[in-house]
From TrEMBL:
It comes from Sunxiuqinia elliptica. GO terms for molecular function: 5S rRNA binding; structural constituent of ribosome. Signal peptide: none annotated. This is one of the proteins that bind and probably mediate the attachment of the 5S RNA into the large ribosomal subunit, where it forms part of the central protuberance. Part of the 50S ribosomal subunit; part of the 5S rRNA/L5/L18/L25 subcomplex. Contacts the 5S and 23S rRNAs. The gene is rplR. SUPFAM superfamilies: Translational machinery components (SSF53137). PANTHER family: 39S RIBOSOMAL PROTEIN L18, MITOCHONDRIAL (PTHR12899), LARGE RIBOSOMAL SUBUNIT PROTEIN UL18M (PTHR12899:SF3). HAMAP family: Ribosomal_uL18_B (MF_01337_B). GO terms for cellular component: cytosolic large ribosomal subunit. Keywords: Ribonucleoprotein, Ribosomal protein, RNA-binding, rRNA-binding. This is Large ribosomal subunit protein uL18. Belongs to the universal ribosomal protein uL18 family. It comes from the Bacteria. InterPro entries: Ribosomal_L18, Ribosomal_uL18_bac-type, Ribosomal_uL18_bac/plant/anim.
Amino acid sequence: MALTKQQRRYRIKKRIRKIVSGTSERPRLSVFRSNKQIYAQLVNDVDGTTLLAISSLNKEISEKEGNKSEIAALVGKALAEKAKAAGIENVVFDRNGYLYHGRVKQLAEAAREGGLKF
């Protein structure tokens, strides 16, 4: 019996999360994408806290025009700016079981351009 898309993604996610973990010095950049929106957050897995979060629903980003990939790039750039203001430069990227292309790739590349290192 074949796996559903959600089951496949969950298996990949578990496999990634065995390896990737965030600390206070190097938090985990976790990405979630729904059909319409994209969300990103920096997580300290040692303490179990979210250091900062941003999404395409934020007022500054939701007012912009563009397709979903362009919006994802804006989210990545805004995340990098907020992280720099909080004193965070190094992160660990967690694609959350999604393939590294499209919106996830745009967000990651924009975050790198914004100054995050991963």
